[in-house]
Amino acid sequence: MVQDCFASYSLTIKEALQKADAINLQVMMANARLEQAIARIEESQSDLLPHLEGDVSGARQTNDLRSEGIQFPGIGTHVGPYNNFDARGRVTVALFDPSAFERFQAAKKGENLSQAELEKTREDILGVVATLYVDAQRKQQSASLLQTLMDRDQMAFDLSEDNLDQGTGTLLDSNKLKSDLDQTKYLFDQAKLLAEDARLDLESALQIPLNEPLVFIEDKRFLAQLEKCSAINFNNATSADMVLAQSQIEARKADQKTALADFLPKVSGTADYGRSGESPDHGSNTYFVGLQASVPIWEGGEQQAKVKEVKGELKEAQENLLDATQQSQVNIAKARAAILEADDLRNAKAQEKKTAQRSLRIAFDSQVAGNGSAFEVMLEKAGLALAEDEYNQAQASWVIAHIDLLHAQGQLRNLIKKGE
Question: What is the per-residue pLDDT across 128-177, written as a single tens digit (0 to 9) for each?
């Protein structure tokens, strides 16, 4: 995107897509979710690694042996006061914890899911920005067309006023032309407002300064790439929706494995070593080594309910993938049909534009030769403007149809990377 000396922005559709892919807020949020998923992997992995900790304690205390169930006749039960000191390091290792292992695997699937969500967000944003760009461009072109039609109607009205003054025209004709001019002015004002709204929407999506004129530049090289890529049959391509749906299935399968792993026993080992006694100088080195095994038996049906829940979520994800696949096939078929229709219309309108250009040249030549008038030239200019607007509309439909096809095939983001 190039800023010119008049504080306007020259922007091609490829530049708009590249800018949206780089700085859009939703993409940034999706990136942040991906970073969170990576952090969850590290968090869940910690359950499989040794845990190290150190404890230091010291106290001066008294005890009553009766609190421990110890009492002998003739022997006092009050002990102390005495000093107590203990300092040791401790390591705990999960020797067998299938639940922690499956949570680690599920966290990795969560990263894949977040990556798929990021790619879907990118593809969807590119599709939206392409539509915003084409819409803003078309509304600007429509305003330009109405400016030309307003100039035509103004000239027609001025001529009618001259004819009325000379007695060769009628008031009825003049009033009708004045009404046509007022109507065109109204449509022009409405077109300017619509063009302004569309421009602001595009600038907001691209996070560029608002209230700056946009100059839409046709990128013929990009349009050629667009047509070439759309002609490729991506047999094994999957849309971003399909990739996301498949990632959701993998994530739900991992959740199911985690839920089932909660039924299995867990074994952990603990060892510590340190100094214990009255004080650091009056004590001895001691250690502890032990194993612990826990077996879940019954937790009020919580685990069984969790298994049922994840099974339902897995079935839902599978149905979602089926729907996404069908929708992708439908969208591809619709886009290909739209491309054929837009291509035929564009070719037809191109011929009409050439005809209008020839008519304008003839009108100019006639004016120069003294056989035509300035109003006849203006009429041909308006005819050419109408033909160009119809061609521009066909061109816009052609571009959007190609964008829709690549979006349905999951290839839109790959397109804007070409030629970088």
Answer: 899 999 999 999 999 999 999 999 999 999 999 998 888 888 889 889 99
Name the amino acid, one letter, at 157.
F
In terms of pTM, does the model score above 0.90? Answer: no
Tell me which residue of 131, 3, 19 sits closest to 420, measured CA to CA. 19
Distance of CA 50 to the CA centre of its chain: 39
Question: What does the alpha-carbon distance between residue 389 and residue 395 come to, in Å, rounded to a whole number?
Answer: 10
Rg, the chain, Cα only: 38
- Give the integer Cα–Cα distance in Å for 120 and 112: 12
Tell me: the pLDDT tens digits for 150-159? 999 999 999 9
20, 127 Cβ separation under 8 angstroms:
no
Residue range 64-118, pLDDT digits in tens:
878 878 777 777 778 878 888 888 888 888 877 888 777 777 777 777 888 888 8
b (16+ CB within 10 A) / e for 267-289 = ebeeebebbbbeeeeebeeeeee
Distance separating alpha carbons of residues 23 and 169, to the nearest angstrom: 61
Cβ atoms 178, 153 nearer than 8 A: no
Query: Which residues is 284 bridged to in the sheet?
Result: 276
Task: In whole angstroms, give the CA distance from residue 138 to residue 144.
Answer: 10
* Tokens coding 261: 């792993």
CA distance 155 to 47: 83
Both tokens assigned to 223: 């349009």
Place of tokens 């979602």: 320
Query: Burial of 336 by CB count in 10 Å (0-12 exposed, 13-18 middle, 19+ buried)?
Result: middle
| Nearest CA-CA partner of 80 in 60, 105, 97 | 60
- Find the distance separating the first CA and the last CA of the chain, reported in whole Å: 14
Q: What distance in Å separates the CA atoms of residue 1 and residue 215, rounded to the nearest whole number? A: 10
List of residues 6+ apart from 138 with CB closer than 8 A: 392, 393, 396
What whole-number distance in Å separates Cα of residue 392 and Cα of residue 399?
A: 10
> Is residue 137 helix, strand or coil?
helix
